[in-house]
Amino acid sequence: MAKLRISLMPESNNVPLSPITPFSPINERMENPAARLMRQLKKWRKNATDRCIRDAYGLRNELMVTLIVGSFTFIMWGIWESSVPHFKNYFGSFMFPWITFILSHTLSITIPVWKSYKNSFDISKLATFHDKRMSRSKKYEQFEKVLADPDLFKLYKACAVACFCTELVLFLEEYQFLKMLVAKCCTPSNKGFLIPPPTPKLHLVDTNHIFTEETLLIKNTSILPPLSPSIYISTPCTKSIVESISAASWIPFPYELRCDFRTFYDTYLDPNSDLAINFSGSMVNNVKNMIDNGQFELSMFENAREETLTLLYVNTFEKFL
């Protein structure tokens, strides 16, 4: 499985000084610690802003707020415990850490749960949600174009990693890999024609990439009808296995793919996996029951694919643009 990495730190901390570099005045270097601390905090804030680290789930902001408030309340606990003991009968010193716990609980649990109800929708109507609500928007058409273009998709993967959504793009890449395996099983004349690569890759027929936002919508990408596994994999991840492979709608599930589909579930849907995606419990239970009962289907991951596209579109595409 491919690993994505982004360098967020400078390559070197050694900055050469030119002969004309002025030295700071002695009074500036001997200033009080509070002023130096404030200047350093402003520098850290500027560096974080310049790097544009804006994750999709607000983890960075949550950690920063908890760190700052927690440090302040810890200091106040020490002062209250040692300096003003006569006030402990009215306001206990442990009330300060309690403020930090309440704030952390609000940021990490209360607000996400409230947002989940605010933006919730019925998972059984997920396909209709994509067809009626997203597909009509020009921005979602741009999203589909980015996923279908190899060069833009590479840039988009870097954006998803910066937003802490690495598992979402890896899900789509592995889904393309499953699509290729199904295509190979559905074309007996091509068995042995294609050896599965170690990592999934996208290969599009059209290589004329247009990067501007205006021309992205009018770019016509023609995909030929699928004839071989190499052409099946050229269909973008916005197309399901059944949509890309006509025979997948009526052939029985290939027995040799059970291990691959089970591995896919263990990687992205199993709650105990390191790359588990936050799917709804009903969806995960349905797929788990199908696997436990041996009722494998080629369309068993379609709801998960649709929800992955939704999570990517809602949480990262605005930042990518």
From TrEMBL:
InterPro entries: RGS (IPR016137), RGS_sf (IPR036305), RGS_subdomain_2 (IPR044926)
Keyword Chloroplast applies: no
Listed name of the protein: 22934_t:CDS:1
Alphabetical keyword list: Membrane, Transmembrane, Transmembrane helix
Domain RGS: 262-321
SUPFAM superfamilies for this protein: Regulator of G-protein signaling, RGS (SSF48097)
Spans traversing the lipid bilayer: 63-80, 95-114
Transmembrane helix keyword on record: yes
